[in-house]
Amino acid sequence: MTTEFEYIMSISETLEAGKWIAVVNKDIIKGNNAREVFLKAKEKYPRREPFIMKVPDNAIMLL
Q1: What is the DSSP letter of 47?
Q2: How far apart are CA 16 and CA 57, in angstroms?
Q3: Which one-letter DSSP state was computed for residue 15?
């Protein structure tokens, strides 16, 4: 079973820099701010907690 974070790391090169994303069940929901992606994710998956993050602007991600 892959966590949402592990899934994001596996597809990170395909994500648009500077956008906010929410991940639920390997479904990526994109938007311009955290509130927007949270509301879209909760509408689609009301009983799940989305993993939300902003895609970094540069190619290097420090954890």
Answers
A1: T
A2: 9
A3: S
